[in-house]
Each structure stands twice: as structure tokens, then as C-alpha cells.
Amino acid sequence: MTGTESEAGEFKGLQRQLKKVWHEFQQDPSYEHTSVIVPSMTVNQEELAKVTGAAFYEERLMFALIRLRNPNARLIYVTSQPVHPDIVDYYLQLLDSVSASHARRRLHMLCVFDASPRPLSEKILERPHLLRRLRRIIGNTDRAYLTCYNSTVLERRLALSLGIPLNGLDPELLSFGTKSGNRKVFAEAGIDYPAGFEDLRHEDDIVESLLALREQRPGLKRAVIKLNEGFGGEGNAVFTYPEGTADDSGVRQGLQELSWLSGVETYGNFLRKFDAMGGIVEELIVATETRSPSVQMRILPDGSTRLVSSHEQVLGGSTGQAYLGCRFPADDEYRKTLLDQAEKVGKVLSGHGILGRFAIDFFASRNNGRWATHAIEINLRMGGTTPPFHALEFLTGGELDDNSGLFVAPNGQAKFYTATDNLKSPAYRGLLPEDLFEIIWQHGIGFRHATGTGVLFYMIGALSQYGKLGVTCIGNSADEAQQLFAQTVKILDESTAGKKQGMVAPMSDRYFAME
Questions:
Q1: With helix as H, strand as E and coil as C, how does 137-192 read?
Q2: Domain ends where: 398, 427, 454?
Q3: 407 in a structural domain
Q4: What is the pTM assigned to this prediction?
Q5: Helix, strand or coil for residue 352?
Q6: Would residue 512 count as lying in a domain?
Q7: What integer pLDDT is reported at residue 117 of this predicted model?
Q8: What is the distance between the alpha carbons of residues 276 and 96, in angstroms, rounded to a whole number?
Q9: Coil, strand or helix: which one is 40?
Q10: 222, 239, 255, 473: most buried by Cβ count inside 10 Å?
Q11: Domain encompassing residue 127
């Protein structure tokens, strides 16, 4: 038996412990436990490097500190670089049922002091002294679990090293999360998805698939070529068919003129990654009206599925496929359809043994009639829509109504939000966390427990260097949430106007904007 096979068997045994912890927590919300948060972005590092301020995405799970409102909960949060203490204080002061000082005694913030562009899980695993320290802090492993951004063999190895279960899928099942695996799941679930081909590996496969797709869809003008392990729109290339009849030579010529989200990509480099990880080719659906909604779900340790949220995603970039932000919830006209289709996908994934959070991206289109929806991809991990929804959940104490898809606070008030992790401006560069907090308090745009409305800021560490941060604007209506977003942008712009904060540099996508 190889080391990997031995790890896989040991991991399956360890995961059985998660079901017990989850059951106890369901029986008693004040259950004493320890949550270990390792927000490692264990994805293709070459693709991740294209994301502005990617190192600070480790702060996107800081909303988890709000779990400390349970007086019997302990939380360990590990990062590559230290998190500014004012940022930690900012989240702790949002706790409305326990004092910040009490919560701080149950919080352990650790870092590896390693800014190299590698997954955080890998950095932790190569530091035996840190692993021993973590095990000492965890103490009783029977009441602890590990939460990560996504699950790979590194996260599995980390769980085994700590002796606690991973609140996520077994990496043996990661093939279901590839673009090729997604298409197979959609087929098994019996829901609509774009015409195309999966399990491709080489340039000849791409050419053959593009030609076959044109035969299936005469008049098709564009198609999308996707790397199996791309994310956030990175790794997607848009192909434009030549005028007239498409033949082998015409398609090969067209491949030299692909459009990418990232301006630094080249065809040779893209093809190298395609040969290594494989991918798909599928039609690019065109309609008079198009939208990009998504549904977030969770498969619990007992195998049951649970709807988490739905969103209208706002996409941008040169190909229009980069995630910029979202609105909650998805549109009334097709939200129920999306939730029903997501449930079908959830049952298929659960049947294959998938565990944890995942999201399904859809494409909604309309040509002077009813909306049609097509499933586009499945993200077997947390994503850009995870922090805002769970911030809403933890801040308000409400829950999602499965029938309507609306989030309802304990007082019966429906909640809405506008959110982005891509609010940025050259003028924001140089703002320190304490500068941002002064602006928040001076203008009163923080979250207010009395009304259950206001703004939550995150990814604050990226502000000074990149002029970028995340915001979730929570309102009692969609209009109020959007107005809060516009007000927040206006306040930040006016507070930095003419201040020449830091070094001004060219920046695309001035800020996440919505109609």
C-alpha cells in the first residue's frame, strides 16, 4: 500500500468523527468545540497569481470569528502573514451576545510568517513546531474540526497531522469538481447545460470539438474553452468562429486569436496548461438578456443536502467572465427553478459521497419570452459568495426559507445585500486599517444590530497595498442594500479625494458597479 493509499484509508476513518461532532452541535448550539480555520487557497497557483491581492484572500473567512458568540466555542485562525490587530477587534466588536474580551480569550490567531506564493496548508505542513503548537491548543480532538477554503491532498494531510476531521470533501472525489466532471454531474442530474464536450486533453481534441460543436449548432459564433481546474473565470478562453464554413485550418487559425480574462495569457501557455490538466469546449449562449445567477448548497455529514443561498453574480473583465460581486437573492422570476435544479445536483453529489459546501453557477437567458437556465459549473469549495452570506447569517441570526429562497431574520424581516470583494481605486492605496475604521465610525456606515442593516468590510489587509477591499451592504430591501453600496463608495471616494494615498497606479474595473 502506498503512502497516499494509507492516507486515504486513515482519512476516511477520521471523517467519521465529523458526523458525531455535527450531531452534537445540532442537538446543542452551545456545544463546546474547537474550530480550526485554515483559509488556504490550494488551487493552481499560476492562475491565482492573476488575482489582484490574492494573498489577502485568506482574510475572506474572518466572518468565522462571529462563531465565538457561542461562549463555549474556541477558534484557531491561521494565516500566512499576521492579521492587523485592529481588524481582529473589528470583527469581535460585532458580537452582540458576548463581550469582545471573553471572545478574545477563546481566539488564537497564528501565522507562519511566509508570504511565498504557495498554499497555506503546505506552509503549515512543513513546520513541525507549528503543528505541535496547534495540537496543544486544540487539546481534545474529539470536539474539533478543520475548515479550509477547499479540499486537496494537502488539506487531507493537514487534517491527519492534527488528528481532526476536515469539514470538506475527500480529495479522492475532486474529479467531480473539474469542468469535465461538472458536465457529467449535470447530465446525471437531468438538468440543462450548454452543448459541448468534456475530457479533452490536447489541441487536436479542442479543434475536433469546436468543429463538432459547430455542426450541432449551425450559426454558432463563439465557444468557450475551459481549463478543468480554472476558477473565477481565470482559465477560460473565448473562441470566435471564422466567417463562413469552419474547417480545420480556420479553427486552428482562430485558436491563435483567443480572448482571455487575463491580459498576460498567451496561447502557448494556455495550451501547456490544457495539456497538463485537460478541459472542455462548450457553446457560448447568446441572448437578448443574460444573467449569471448561482446557488450555494451544503451536503451535511449525514449525507443530507441543504440550500444555503442564491445570488445574482456580477461578472466583468475582458471576456465578461470574471467574478466581481453579487446581489442576494437571485431574481424572483427564476429563483425557484434554480433552487429545484440545485437540489437535483446536490442529490447526485451526495450519492457520490461529496461533503461540505459547494456552489453551482448558472446562465440565465431570455429572447423576448421566458427565462431559460443552463448549469455552467460546480465549485466544490467556498467562493466569493461565501463570505457575504455567512456574514449575514452570523450577524442577524436568521435563516434561509427553503420555499421562497429569501433570508428571514428572527423578527420576520427579509434581508437583502449587495456585496463585492473587488471594490478598488488607486486613491484607496495607502489607507491603513485604522484609517478605514476612522472613516467607518465618522460616517456611521458600520453594521447596526438594532436595525440589522449596514456595511461589513472584509479583506481589509489588501487596502493599503492594492487599494482593494470587500464590502457586504445589508438592507431590508434590495434597493436599500444597493443604496448602502453607493453611499459606501461615495464616502470612501470623498475621504480619499486629493489625498494621494500611497502610489497611484493604473487599475481596471474602477469598482464593482451595478445597475
A1: HHCCHHHEEEEECECCHHHHHHHHHHCCCECCCCHHHHHHHCHHHHHHHHHHHCCC
A2: 398
A3: no
A4: 0.87
A5: coil
A6: no
A7: 87
A8: 50
A9: coil
A10: 473
A11: 3-172
- String of b and e for 455-474 (b: at least 16 CB within 10 Å)? bbbbbbbbbbebbbbbbbbb
Count of domains forming the chain: 4
Cα 126 from chain centre: 26
- Which residue ranges of the chain lie beneath pLDDT 50? 1-2, 502-511, 513-515
**Residue 388 amino acid letter:** P
Other beta carbons within 10 Å of 318: 14
Task: State the DSSP H helix or E strand holding residue 36, giving kind and residue range, or none if neither.
Answer: strand 33-38
CA separation for the pair 112, 122 (Å, rounded): 11
Q: Are residues 295 and 390 in the same domain?
A: yes
Q: Does 380 lie in the same domain as 421?
A: no
Q: Do 7 and 150 fall into the same domain?
A: yes
Quick check: is 188 in a domain?
no
The predicted-structure confidence for 213-243, as pLDDT tens digits, reads as follows 999 999 899 999 999 987 666 688 999 998 8
Residues 141-150: pLDDT tens digits?
A: 999 999 998 8
The C-alpha angle 412, 416, 418, rounded to 5 degrees, equals 165
Domain match, 278 and 307 both: no
Helix (H, G, I), strand (E, B) or coil at 212: helix
Other beta carbons within 10 Å of 331: 15
Please check whether residues 23 and 136 belong to one and the same domain: yes
Q: Is residue 450 part of a domain?
A: yes
